[in-house]
Amino acid sequence: MTPDTDRKRIVIKIGSSSLTSMNGELSRRKLEKIVEEVVRLKDDGHDVLLVSSGAVAAGYRKLGCLTRPESLSEKQAAASIGQGLLIETYSDLFISHGYVASQILITRSDFSEENRYNNARNTINVLLDRGIVPIVNENDTITMDFLKFGDNDTLSAKVAGLIDADQLIILSDIDGLYDSDPRKNEDAKLLFEVNEITPEIEASAGDPGSAVGTGGMKSKIEAVKITMASGIPSFLGKSSTVGIIYDAVYKNAVGTYFEPQEDMQNLNQKKQWIAFNSGPEGEVTINHSATEAIIENQTSLEPSAVHSVHGRFRKGAVVKIFDVNGDEIGLGVVNYSSKALDQLINETDIDLEKYEKAAIESEQLVCLLDTAVPAGV
């Protein structure tokens, strides 16, 4: 490690196209290249976690399919074969360099339940503290489409927040973010540093570009939104570039660096869980003055400011917060069940003792507008 460089926690996301050969088989040569670069970072003293795609791509030919399967059951069967091949190859390669790799398969429900979320965080912290290289993937074999993270770009961003990473590196088959689609515009320019995800940047993201993976530039931009809201710098670059992983950490790589603005309000662990993982159970609509107070001053939400309650939820659940115009402004952990809160706001003779607690405490509330948190993640 260079004298002026601190130990970092680095999450590296590897896409399917970065791991497989032209015919869709797992490429040991490509994995060797990735492992060698991770080993260089480990030798420098950094902690590294891999979020690795490739299970379906590695397994579908062994299943007897000539092309990548379309049906959910065949994809899951291919993943059950391919995941074993993937982790076996990673493990052998890391052991040959004196490091141990571990496998962590995650489903969205592992993140949506706070106890399981914290348990995953604790487990990964132990692995990193012991010098292990955790290799994370979604548990494609058992996860239903409606319970999926969507893609490993999103998963990697959420894992980066989970472990308080210092950097997320997303590798794919493109050099980085361009000001327009380079496949359609030969004059498109690569952006070296981005401090804000503007509507223009989102518009230039385009559609998925690889037939092997599930994500495209749009999913990568959504992932970057999560890391920027969490105060985590990110990098997007081309996996085939020599030394891309190592150089990205030391900011010498060709690609796009996403640096959160210094004045941006970063979310702590609790608020990251609320914003990105919790799975809201209901909704509350609040009056105009409360909306302004939350946006401008990050205040708690008092029961008297709740205009109406929608859906059924328990005390301690996460709910969506809407203003009277129907715009979603935040998320928060509610101190009352839907029944109790509805009764409270509709009472004509108010019992002040029932107001001992706010409807949602400021420490348990995330304002989507003020923190640049992407709505609907």
UniProtKB/TrEMBL annotation:
Binding residue positions for ATP: K13, S172, D173, T214, G215, G216, M217, K218, S219, K220
Presence of keyword Amino-acid biosynthesis: yes
Major subcellular site: cytoplasm
Binding site for substrate: S53, D140, N152
Recorded family membership: Belongs to the glutamate 5-kinase family.
Protein name, per record: Glutamate 5-kinase
UniProt keyword list: Amino-acid biosynthesis, ATP-binding, Cytoplasm, Kinase, Nucleotide-binding, Proline biosynthesis, Transferase
Catalyses which reaction(s): L-glutamate + ATP = L-glutamyl 5-phosphate + ADP
SUPFAM superfamilies listed in its UniProt record: Carbamate kinase-like, PUA domain-like
Subcellular location: Cytoplasm
Keyword Iron-sulfur: no
Pathway(s): Amino-acid biosynthesis; L-proline biosynthesis; L-glutamate 5-semialdehyde from L-glutamate: step 1/2
Span of domain PUA: 282-357
Function recorded in the entry: Catalyzes the transfer of a phosphate group to glutamate to form L-glutamate 5-phosphate.
Pfam families according to UniProt: AA_kinase, PUA
E.C. number(s) listed in UniProt: 2.7.2.11
Lineage, opening ranks: Bacteria, Bacillati, Bacillota, Bacilli, Bacillales
